[in-house]
């Protein structure tokens, strides 16, 4: 950079320059040369530049002109810019409000990166300060008289406001456990002394249903009673007196009772 250009830059730089305003946030892909980088825009901090989200292309640093890449000075500028941006995953860009793009389809803007917790480093101003590029006052919103550092509170004001108004949704999972317990009580009444008597088997089933729903537990009980009644028929012999119980009928009755009792115990 010539001595006259440096003097002009110092004279033109105000003591209290206006802080940059970040319009979009991008990810660096690679450095093209001393004043151009390839980026991917990942977020817009204002509605005006929302259409830039997803843009994959070049960012031309506004109002700075580095030597051509095929010269020793151009190679030096490119390597210096690569070293500066190494390790910076997030790039902050103040996009030109007048044109946004240049005639080559490149976004035109001021590039900023994290310097510390409270300030951003203006990369355009850094190139000028290091003598790696010359100032060019192209027709856009900028003037190449930026301060080297920009306060984050001002530069990221629009991005922070968006974060403060976003909605956070929490998902809560509730588990309900249902346990069923069955209790069977068997009441047996067996009479086989004379024909015509009644054999009764009563089965009472109580089902307990436990529903656990934190922090409460509900227990309900349902009782079902099943009654089986068998009547042993009378014989036809003599003078109105009942005949002795036939052995075959007695055997069948005993077998039936045994079967029912066995089945109830299995449950």
Description of the structure:
By secondary structure, the chain is an alpha+beta fold. It is 24% helix and 36% strand. It is built from six helices and twelve strands. The chain has helices at 3-12, 72-85, 123-129, 152-155, 157-164, 247-266; strands at residues 24-33, 36-44, 56-61, 64-65, 91-95, 107-114, 119-122, 134-135, 149-151, 176-189, 198-213, 216-231. Strands 1-2-3-6-5 form a five-stranded mixed β-barrel. Strand 6 (107-114) and strand 7 (119-122) form a beta hairpin.
Give the distance, in angstroms, between the N- and C-terminal Cα atoms: 99 Å
Mean pLDDT score: 76
Structural class: alpha+beta
CA-based shape = rod-shaped
How many beta-strand segments? 12
Helix content: 10-25%
Write a brief structural summary.
The protein has 267 residues and is of the alpha+beta class. The chain is built from six helices and twelve strands. The chain folds into two domains: 159 residues, OB fold (Dihydrolipoamide Acetyltransferase, E2P); 78 residues, no CATH class.
Helix and strand layout, with pairings?
Elements: H1 3-12, E1 24-33, E2 36-44, E3 56-61, E4 64-65, H2 72-85, E5 91-95, E6 107-114, E7 119-122, H3 123-129, E8 134-135, E9 149-151, H4 152-155, H5 157-164, E10 176-189, E11 198-213, E12 216-231, H6 247-266
Parallel strand pairs: 3-6
Antiparallel strand pairs: 1-2, 1-5, 2-3, 4-8, 5-6, 6-7, 7-9, 10-11, 11-12
């Amino acid at each position: 950079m010539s001595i006259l250009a440096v003097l002009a830059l110092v004279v033109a730089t105000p003591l209290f320059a206006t802080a940059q305003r970040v319009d979009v946030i991008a990810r660096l892909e690679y450095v093209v040369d001393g004043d151009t980088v390839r980026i991917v825009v990942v977020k817009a901090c204002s509605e005006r530049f929302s259409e830039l989200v997803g843009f994959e292309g070049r960012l031309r640093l506004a109002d700075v002109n580095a030597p051509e890449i095929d010269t020793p000075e151009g190679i030096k500028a490119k390597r210096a810019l690569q070293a500066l941006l190494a390790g910076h995953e997030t790039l902050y860009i103040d996009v030109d409000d007048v044109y946004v793009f240049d005639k080559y389809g490149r976004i035109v803007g001021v590039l900023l990166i994290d310097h510390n917790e409270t300030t951003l480093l203006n990369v355009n101003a850094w190139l000028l300060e290091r003598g790696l590029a010359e100032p060019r006052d192209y027709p856009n919103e900028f003037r190449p008289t930026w301060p080297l550092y920009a306060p984050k509170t001002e530069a990221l004001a629009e991005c922070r406001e968006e974060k403060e108004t976003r909605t956070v949704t929490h998902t809560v999972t509730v588990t309900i456990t249902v346990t069923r317990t069955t209790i069977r009580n068997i009441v047996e009444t067996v009479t086989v002394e004379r024909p015509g008597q009644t054999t009764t088997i009563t089965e009472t089933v109580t089902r307990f249903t436990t529903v656990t729903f934190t922090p409460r537990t509900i227990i309900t009980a349902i009782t079902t009673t099943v009654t089986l009644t068998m009547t042993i028929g009378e014989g036809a012999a003599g003078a109105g007196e009942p005949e002795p119980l036939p052995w075959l009928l007695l055997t069948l009755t005993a077998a039936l009772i045994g079967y029912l009792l066995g089945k109830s115990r299995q449950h």
